[in-house]
Amino acid sequence: MVHELLKMRRSVRLAAKTISEVSSQSSNQIVRLKARSKSTKGGKKTNKYSVYKKSIKRNRETSSTSDCDENECKESMVNCSGIIEEKIKPKLKRVKTEQDNSTVIASGNLQQPMLQGKLVGAHVSISGGIQNAVSEALKIGAKAFGLFLRSQRQWKSKPLEDKAAELFKQACERGGFSARAILPHGIYLMNCGSPEEETLAKSRETLVEELKRCEKLGLALYNFHPGSTCGKITVEECIDRIAQSINEAHLQTNHVVTVLENMSCQGNTVGGKFEELREIIDRVEDKSRVGVCIDTCHAFAAGYDISSDGGFDKMMQEFESVIGLKYLRAVHLNDSKGELGCHLDRHENIGKGKIGINAFRRLMMDPRFNGIPMILETPCEAENTYQKEVKLLYSFRDGKS
Ligand SMILES: [Zn+2]
Ligand SMILES: [Zn+2]
75 alpha carbon to ligand 1 midpoint, in Å? Predict the structure, then answer.
């Protein structure tokens, strides 16, 4: 009976969502669909994926007996964006922002300006209150931003107050940020595929809690690291747990899309290979509420050579054939300190790492990335680093560089 009710609730939600989304799907969806149908012709997708499916069971086994204790495992879940939280606090010079003046339509809680073109921004601090994230984003000339929803290094946190949520929503509307341009990042402690029952339970509780925070803030997306085997279970088992965590969280919340971030294959993390992300998506019941965020540094470290034109094309073809472009919901823009395939999660400033500037130029020129948040998580040593990087990236779009 309860199950039936949940099913009905979901169908009603899906119908309502379809109505509200049909009008807000921007032309980039069409471009993406066209590109997708072009490159999947000849049944390429089926072949590639079915070959993978056959081999995955053979190849997968627990990565080691137990070289990874819980602390090491947590370590592998933490990525270098951990440095982000403190880094944009200094006062930055206010710069004029280029917000779209396009039509505003109502969808969800936040007003939704039509999302066209590139939405570049950075991960910003919520120091002093979550509403401050918006002014931080405006200061750097961003059209999108990422943020933590609370302190990211502890399980417990104060509930989000009504007043703070209201101030945040008002600030977003004033700043012209629609829900689809904002990409919250889940806390690093979470491991929704954990082999430890206690950690798994806490992670699942946290996932629901954070999705509810998103709903209260009027947000549409929620990005997190899929999980880690900690070397104690198989990748397959970990994937099952991650998908179950997502399914349970979807049933307890209403509309936010859970966005899986590709990882760098560091330690025992899952989601470095597109095939693993696809396997998670396959097990998610409500496919309208799951998506993927491509982190460029993680992709490069995992072995996708986006530094060359050929490699960039190859990665995109693989994304299309293994996952599907309709699941592409966000990008993390990071160069890499580490070499191709190093598995290290070490972010570098745009154009200063091993990936190089060309990949970012390609990203900015590619219509498949229109209308989704593209978030910088680069080291921010100088006060105006993000401001400069946002400007640099937009100059590629305009064909200036
Ligand atoms: Zn991340
Ligand atoms: Zn990232």
Answer: 13
Please classify residue 384 by burial: count the beta carbons closer than 10 Å to its beta carbon, then call 0-12 exposed, 13-18 middle and 19+ buried: middle
Contacts by 384-388 with C-beta closer than 8 Å and gap 24+? 384/92, 384/93, 384/140, 385/349, 386/88, 386/92, 386/122, 386/140, 386/142, 387/92, 387/93, 387/95, 387/139, 387/140, 387/141
- Closest Cα partner for 181 from 138, 139, 210? 138
Model pLDDT for residues 311-321, shown as the tens digit of each residue: 999 999 999 99
Residue among 85, 209, 261, 335 flagged as catalytic: 261
Around ion ligand 2, residues with a beta carbon closer than 5 Å are 295, 332
pLDDT at 184 over 70: yes
34-58 pLDDT per residue, tens = 444 444 433 444 444 444 444 444 3
Which residue ranges form the domains of the chain, and what is each CATH number? Answer: 2-397 (3.20.20.150)
Considering every ligand atom, which ligand is closest to the CA of 294? 2
332 catalytic per annotation? yes
For the record, the structure tokens of 397 come out as 């779009």
Question: Please, which residues have CB within 8 angstroms of residue 275's CB and are 6 or more apart in sequence?
Answer: 49, 52, 56, 322
Give Cα 118 to chain centroid, integer Å.
Answer: 16
Task: Give me the residue label for tokens 């964006």.
Answer: 81
Q: Rounded to whole angstroms, what are the CA distances from 209 to 69, 86, 156, 239, 252?
A: 27, 23, 10, 21, 10
Neighbours of 159 (CB within 10 A): 11
Main-chain dihedrals φ then ψ at residue 88, nearest 5 degrees: -110, 15
Locate 181 and state its tokens: 């341009």
Catalytic residue from among 123, 188, 215, 329: 188
